Amino acid sequence: MTKQPGRKRDREATRARLLECARLRFARDGYDGTSVRDVAGDVGVDPALVFRYFGSKSGLFSDAMATSQEAVVLPDGPVEELPAKLLHQLVFEDWAEYAGEHPLIAMLRSASHEDMRDRVRQQVCDGYLGVLSELAEGNDDKDLRTELFGAWLLGIGILRTAVGTPSLTKATEADLTPHLASVAKALFGRDIPV
Amino acid sequence: MTKQPGRKRDREATRARLLECARLRFARDGYDGTSVRDVAGDVGVDPALVFRYFGSKSGLFSDAMATSQEAVVLPDGPVEELPAKLLHQLVFEDWAEYAGEHPLIAMLRSASHEDMRDRVRQQVCDGYLGVLSELAEGNDDKDLRTELFGAWLLGIGILRTAVGTPSLTKATEADLTPHLASVAKALFGRDIPV
DNA sequence: TCCTCAAGTCATCGATCGGTGACTTACCTG
DNA sequence: CAGGTAAGTCACCGATCGATGACTTGAGGA
Question: Keyword DNA-binding: yes or no (chains A, B) (predicted)?
């Protein structure tokens, strides 16, 4: 990712590399902890180029997070397998691109600005909660129970990666699956085989 | 909280006011988003005084968070009431001193530095998880189930205050208690009246 | 080959940050 | 009332930040 004197001049490729490095930096160090010079230095390019391409630092941030949203692939398949799949994706998948943390958890680090909060909420609601809502039945408080289950998955991810609580950090996916099933049954009122 | 020309020169009182305003700033804007000049301006004092009292910005941060830890009162009483009390304290109590958010959730905003992560982990483990562990029985994975329940409470707090998910934001304490009971029963294997 | 236009660079600005040391002011004591 | 001491202030430093505009360089077409 360092400057290579003989590389070609390719606007789109350079732009993509800037976005990639920006995603990693913003996720690992947060918005304030990342400077435009850092990102440009990772790509091996002059910092002024970042402003030519993205207008401002917040523009770079928005574009980087917008492209990251496409990278999150929501699982499909039988609804009974959704909790296990979401747990795997939120907690156990190796998000090397985001310094080992899930993008959502990493984004919370930069949630000081209001637009970041809106983006996280939209991604959570339209993405994960929308998938999870297929699990809930009934009309009374379907959405609430869905969000409660999503809160659990998010809390597990945060305690594991951001806080580093001992038992959850050591736990394997197999250690969590039985509890995943029992909590899913308690919230959704039906058996969820995992 | 502005400068009052006729106020007395009281080192301890000024120091306490600095810590109070620092806690609010750090919680609301994060470590990087808070400047020493901001905190000093809130108290109505010269920024240089902050360095005279706390040595550095990180010293101010450490002292502010150390004093905040004492402010967290862990509930006691019958173990059966612990989940409801913790839920109230983590989610529904009005933490006006910390811009409406629970200190733990606010601290995650400043978790870019490593010592912040250690402090949050220590506070979670020695505090909340220690209290919750009285709920778990058996020896197989007592600690894991305790952390799983703590993860849920933390996730609820984050979805409510930091993400702003719709149903959880609107939910009252009474809306959550039945689900709190069922999940506690699922994880701890015994009835928890709430 | 040479010209053109876009990709990329360079120099620099103004603001703000954490931090330092000399200075001034107010309170307490004798 | 006088003077010492601690609380609080002032001026300033070096570094870094986001951002701007003029400049240079390289690749492709006529």
Answer: yes
Length of chain B: 194
- Positions 51-80 in A, CB within 7 angstroms of strand C: 52
Through-space separation of residue B86 CA and nucleotide C9 C1' in angstroms:
57
What's the DSSP call for residue A99? T
Name the residue of chain A whose CA is nearest to B154's CA: A155
Per-residue exposure over B94-117, b if at least 16 CB sit within 10 Å of its own CB, e if not:
ebeebeebbbbbbbbbbbbeeebb
> What structural domains does chain A harbor?
11-63 (1.10.10.60), 72-188 (no CATH)
Terminal-to-terminal C-alpha distance of chain B: 41
Reported confidence tier of residue A52, pLDDT bands at 50, 70, 90: very high
Q: Is the pLDDT of residue A148 over 90?
A: yes
| Closest chain A residue by Cα to residue B126 | A165
Biggest CA-to-CA distance, chain B: 64
Contacts of B121 (CB under 8 A, 6+ apart): A163, A164, A165
pLDDT band with cut points at 50, 70 and 90 for residue B114: low
| Secondary structure element (H or E) that encloses residue A124, with its range | none
* Cα–Cα distance, A110 to A117 (Å, whole number): 9
- What is the pLDDT at residue B132? 83
Mean pLDDT estimate for chain B: 84
Which range has the worst mean pLDDT, A93-97, A99-103, A114-118, B112-116?
B112-116
Question: In terms of DSSP H, where are the helices of A55-141?
Answer: 57-71, 82-87, 103-108, 114-123, 130-132
Q: How many residues in total does chain A contain? A: 194
Instruction: Let me know if A158 is exposed, middle or buried by CB neighbors in 10 A (0-12, 13-18, 19+).
Output: buried
- pLDDT beyond 50 at B4: no
CB of B109 within 8 Å of a chain A CB? The answer is yes
Helix (H, G, I), strand (E, B) or coil at B80: helix
Angle B98-B102-B108 from CA coordinates, rounded to 5°: 95
pLDDT for residue A115:
66
Tell me the C-alpha distance between B154 and A166, whole Å: 16
Higher pLDDT, A162 or A147: A147
Interface of B with A in 131-150 (CB under 8 A): 141, 143-148, 150
